[in-house]
Amino acid sequence: MDNKQLQETLAKRMGRDNADISKLLEALVTTIKDRCGELDSIAIPGFGTFEAKKKLERIVVNPGTGKRMLVPPKITLSFKPSALLKSKIK
Q1: Which of 21, 53, 13 is nearest to 37 (CA)?
Q2: For the whole model, what pTM was predicted?
């Protein structure tokens, strides 16, 4: 399912037009990005938890050349589905 199909499905279920659903989805994604950018977690009951984790910089060695490289720090986003969502999928 792509973004357009998701918007159409939500519009039919909620009885709203696609423009309203598009704004709602945009607001949801923006909120998740902003909060996770601040290393906050977001829990959506019945769906799951989005959690941002900061990985520290580290030194890795290329096995082929033996050259050492510095990998810069980065923020990764992880998602843990709720027990309810897991049971519905199974």
Answers
A1: 53
A2: 0.70
